[in-house]
Design brief:
The protein is largely without helices or strands. It contains 3 helices and 9 strands; from the N terminus they run H-H-E-E-E-E-E-E-E-E-E-H.
């Protein structure tokens, strides 16, 4: 297992730094560079310990992207109270535990794109009242629990595209009162489930457009789908054939019994194709 401190010996790859130079020394030497610490990216780091960032209270931008980090423990960022941007994209993080970012009250941008996140605990974003941009594109998220975004009242941009989300519980986005951009494309959204009608209403009421949200196996956007014949069970799905995929109609023939055939669909694939894609975010 390679810790952040262990990778000090590899930092020379970026600025010909001495092998003896510590993380704190590295930090102090780069303070003049807009309070950014970029030398930790692309260093095969697998673990970050709780005390790694001691003495770095003024740090505003931290780049930990393109490493091999698998998990984040609570209090790991406790010394970074001034941090505004945190780049963790293209790692191997599998889940977000409660309170993992609670020590980052000034953070406005969190980039977790292209990890392997499958689960986000309810209080994972607790204390992040200043967060404006959250990027979760290209993970393996299958569902979002109610109140998972309850502390993100300032959030303006949320990327959830390229995941494995099939259903969304009603009101899961209810706390995102400042939201201006939501992306849900490339998710296998099950429009046969009545609960998905709540997403349609949310997108319309918040003027968020289509959010790229498309019913699985079709080209029909969730905001255009007719939920009149949906069912209350999560197992109910849509059936599409080559003749009606991409049809402009929002309903399906009653003879198809509203079941979905995804044999030829690659939506929600776990082949890892998303891990090779890096979305440009601002």
């Amino acid at each position: 297992m390679t810790t952040l401190r262990d990778r000090n010996t590899l930092l020379a790859n970026n600025r010909s730094l001495s092998k003896e130079k510590s993380i704190n020394e590295l930090y102090n030497s780069t303070l003049q560079d807009e309070n950014r610490l970029k030398e930790l990216k692309e260093n095969q780091i697998t673990e970050i310990k709780v005390d790694e960032f001691q003495g770095m209270a003024a740090l505003e931008n931290l780049y930990l992207d393109n490493n091999l980090i698998t998990n984040l423990v609570p209090n790991v960022f406790q010394d970074l109270t001034a941090l505004k941007t945190l780049y963790l994209y293209s790692n191997l993080i599998t889940n977000l535990v409660p309170n993992v970012f609670q020590d980052l009250p000034a953070l406005t941008k969190l980039d977790l794109n292209t990890n392997q996140i499958t689960e986000i605990k309810v209080d994972a974003f607790q204390g992040m009242a200043a967060l404006e941009k959250l990027y979760l594109y290209g993970n393996r998220i299958t569902n979002l629990v109610l109140n998972v975004f309850q502390d993100l009242t300032a959030l303006k941009i949320l990327y959830l595209d390229g995941n494995l989300i099939t259903n969304l519980v009603p009101n899961v986005f209810q706390d995102l009162t400042a939201l201006k951009t939501l992306l849900l494309s490339q998710n296998p959204l099950n429009c046969g489930n009545c609960e998905m009608s709540e997403l349609k209403l949310f997108l319309q009421n918040q003027n968020l457009g289509t959010a790229g949200a498309t019913c699985i196996g079709t080209s029909i956007k969730v905001v255009a789908f007719d939920f009149t014949n949906c069912t209350a069970t999560e197992t109910s799905t849509l059936y599409t054939t080559n003749s009606n995929v991409g049809s402009s109609s929002d309903t399906f023939p009653a003879t198809e019994t509203n079941t979905l055939n995804t044999t030829k669909s690659n939506v929600g694939s776990t082949s890892g194709e998303y891990s090779t894609i890096r979305r440009n975010v601002t």
